[in-house]
Design brief:
Distance between the termini: 25 Å
Structural class: alpha/beta
Radius of gyration: 20 Å
Length: 369
């Protein structure tokens, strides 16, 4: 395939695969796409290990790194990460702590005997910058920011290293802000997507973004794309490629939690919900007792980013390993309804391309007729 994005990165297929699993990232890049490692949950030291491993296993193919540097969050005016953590911990209301403790106890999740050390990883400018520094020491082809326009100095730094900068946008207005700070690739992400996502559907969003910035930046279609027919639709709407995420949660290489995988495989496209119950900003997750509890009348409401995640950070690993399993949730998009079997990552790539070709050929026959 040949689009602006395949020529830009020297890849065979315009398929970008976001994953927190290094094995998935390397497998997709080796198969002809471009794997993008989500750096959010890694310390700088851990990220160095992950990227060094990818360097050795990607076969010389290009790959990218995704960070989270939100434009707005509580404590953005504080420059020191430790001061920020201390200040925000003290701002979490006792009411929210009691609600969480009661919810965990109700579902048999064992009390914690440890203090979580990952409450702020990657959710702020202060904590994401060290991740950027580590990433740019490696031969990455792409640096993406997942939440709002990246700081202009980070864009400039990426360009100094010869790295293409990408940013996610959920509206044409957001896309314009990204381009204005120098972003090269706009990931136009519809509300169907997993994780942080806006309210506009992919079918409506892509042409709006293409019309707004398509002459200035490369546009990728995202949100609910996990089939070749959907890929064909994204390119028909004006995108130069697709950004995918959820579909890699159920591949053989994925490190998806053992208790979450069966839920993902069994879920339908109606089993997700946009909720602030994880980070404080709207994100799409599996609909479970966790999301329902935070939406109930008993809930004290959500805390702003990054305080909501700071509140629950210690609880998440405990939920994953104990209790009745009803609280187990996971960020995933509406494409989860099609994620009903486990395949190698390379096979997912080839299936996407095969169905894409079939769709394009079908359209060609319609025109001929």
């Amino acid at each position: 395939m040949r689009t602006r994005v395949t020529e830009l990165f020297g890849i065979e297929y315009p398929i970008f695969a976001f994953s927190h699993c290094r094995d998935v990232v390397a497998a997709v890049s080796r198969a002809g796409g471009l794997g993008v490692l989500g750096a959010l949950y890694f310390t700088p030291e851990e990220l160095e290990v992950e990227l060094s491993w990818i360097d050795e296993h990607v076969g010389g193919r290009p790959y990218g790194v995704d960070v989270v540097m939100p434009a707005k969050y509580e404590g953005a005016d504080l420059g020191d990460a430790e001061e920020l953590l201390s200040r925000l911990q003290g701002m979490i209301p006792a009411e929210h702590r009691r609600f969480l403790d009661d919810l965990l106890a109700e579902h048999g999740v064992e009390p914690s005997t440890e203090t979580a050390g990952r409450a702020l990883l990657g959710w702020t400018d202060q904590t994401a910058r060290p991740q950027v520094e580590v990433a740019l020491k490696h031969p990455i082809a792409l640096l993406a920011n997942a939440l709002g326009p990246p700081p202009a100095d980070v864009v400039a730094l990426a360009h100094e290293h010869g790295v293409t900068m990408a940013g996610l946008a959920s509206s044409a207005r957001h896309a314009r802000k990204q381009v204005d700070v120098g972003v090269d690739v706009i990931v136009a992400q519809g509300t169907e997507a997993g994780g942080h996502t806006g309210e506009i559907s992919t079918m409506v969003l892509i042409p709006e973004v293409v019309d707004e910035v398509g002459s200035e930046a490369v546009v990728l279609a995202a949100g609910g794309i996990g089939r070749g027919r959907q890929m064909a639709a994204g390119l028909a709407l004006g995108a130069e490629g697709v950004w995918t995420g959820s579909i890699w949660l159920t591949v053989e290489e994925a490190d998806t939690p053992e208790r979450a995988l069966p839920k993902l495989l069994a879920a339908t496209s109606r089993d997700t919900v946009r909720s602030r119950a994880w980070t404080g900003k709207p994100a799409r997750f599996l609909k479970t007792a966790w999301t329902e509890a935070w939406e109930s009348d008993k809930s004290p409401g959500y805390l702003p980013m990054p305080m909501q995640f700071m509140l629950i950070a210690d609880a998440l690993p405990r939920i994953a390993r104990s209790g009745d399993g009803e609280l187990v949730t996971f960020p995933v998009g509406q494409i989860v309804g099609s994620m009903n079997r486990v395949r190698p990552a390379s096979q997912v790539v080839y299936d996407l391309i095969g169905e894409y070709v079939d769709a394009v050929e079908r359209l060609g026959r319609i025109i001929e007729e």
